[in-house]
Amino acid sequence: MMKRERLARLLVLGIFVALPLALLGYQYGLRPLTAPHRVIDIVAAAPEAGGFQPDSIQVQTGETVTLRFSAPDVTHGIAIGPGLGIDIGSVEPGQVREITLTFDHAGTFTFYCNTWCSRDHWRMRGVLSVYDTDGSLPAPSRDPVIDQLVAEGVDIDAAHSGQTNHTEAVALVPSPERGAVLLPNLTVPHEVGNSQRRRTHTLAEAAALLQAANPTASEQDVIDAAAALWLPSPAPPADTARLYQQNCAACHGETGSGQSLSTITTASEPAAFADFSYMLHMRSDVLYAKIRRGGMGTDMPNFGTLFMPDETWALVDYLWGLTLAAE
Fold first, then answer.
1. In order of start, what are the domains of the chain with their CATH numbers?
2. What are the tens digits of pLDDT across the range 284-296?
3. What phi and psi values does residue 122 have, to the nearest 5 degrees?
């Protein structure tokens, strides 16, 4: 009887201790040693527990590497950008997800978490540096949109009227659908109809120009027509909604309301893109710059190291869609 009990205990010990240890030994010891290329293990822990470990990786162009992400605490979503289009999905606690990559050009990329994991979620970033064969790393390129704002003396962190005086704002509810019907019967100044100019001016300025060109039009007609011009056309790519939901909704709300479960933890109140009075005086290029550079004095991190410029513009268009859909 004693012998059977001892054997049973050894069997249980083997199942619950030896087998997991053997699996771990294979995953983290034998497999990396026998792999045909370099295997890099990355632990994704909540920022309070250290964040990504390691948080800096160096590879060379032409080198094939396997990145293996594990999560010891909570669920993390893993993506790599900009311009790579890599989203390996969620890594659950105790799970390992991996991806094998070969980089054909040098550059600096970011691996990051796109699932809200803690109040310091924005710190979940790591740097992947891909060096050229001569050991060089391309210098970061300047953003012409941000440079132009600096040249104009525009402070992208300054409060605008939508932030400081919501009572001023618009009692009218914009209807871009109604505005699209009205536009053919209105005089539309060239500068208002210019898509590039709309990136550097506000919807309020467009409404003022429309009103001046159509003095008999009602204020509601003018607001509706201006909203129709501001509604993105064509609509942002389908994956832009995913980018917003993964990276922005946790603070700004799924519909751009500025309210979410994490709002109480942020240093300042997140912008409410669905609030027409807030967006009426906001320039699209300022929104673009805020996304790419981040917001000083807020919990808004930079996304210029995650997204390409065209993805950022698509996100700006998506924000306008939230504004003008909130009827």
1. 37-140 (2.60.40.420), 144-325 (no CATH)
2. 999 999 999 988 7
3. -60, -20
